[in-house]
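An instance noted here:
***
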Amino acid sequence: MSYKSPRRPQFFYTTAPLPCPYVAGRTERKVVTEITGPDADALHDRLSRAGFRRSHNIAYAPVCPSCSSCLPIRIPVAAFTPGRTLRRIARANAGLEGYEVPARATAEQFQLFQRYQNARHGDGDMATMSFYDYRAMIEDTPIDTFIAEFRDEHDRLMGACLSDRLGDGLSAVYSFFAPELESRSLGTYAVLWLIERAKLLSLPYVYLGYWVPESRKMAYKSRFRPSEVLTGGTWRPLDDVERATLPAGALVAQSCD
């Protein structure tokens, strides 16, 4: 008679209130849980479909009592069609070549990461990260993870995107790029690359984390149409959610591409 050990219970914890990084004047709370053990990939898959995100070996989701602005968003890649703005971004970066490399921190990546942080987020905690902190961000993961590197014709690293492989797609965890190329929207280009990569792998979705309508720095995520957001426990087309919740003027402004 075979014996199967019982599954270890999954514990979830709620963080203390902190200032919201997306909407000024609000506070945020998160529910967090550890991703570990032999079933880490399967657990991460389930949590991702439920709207969680990963940092190191921790999965988290917002549970703010008086706010529901953070909407998990994903792109169904088979139906995705780039609009005019996205096609322009793809053309602007046509000289870059994307490569999937193992999740191993390199000095070259870290130098680019530092330049990006100092230029874009100089007053943030990540700007003070050491190489060992960066290596932990890249390598401290119990799941299937890789880095998409973007190089120019001289083999110089211009951008990178830490990404997770899921059972039903790819998940963009964190991207950074050469700050002098800000006008070329390399963060958006990295998502376009992940969409094409997911198509090649026959994976149905690319997960983008949270879309926050009130946050300007999260606005780019709504450029990818069609896309789906998780609301009320169900993944729904973003267009349907916008029509039901946003004022008509805002809907027109966001649909212009």
Notes: Confidence is low (pLDDT under 50) at residues 249-257.
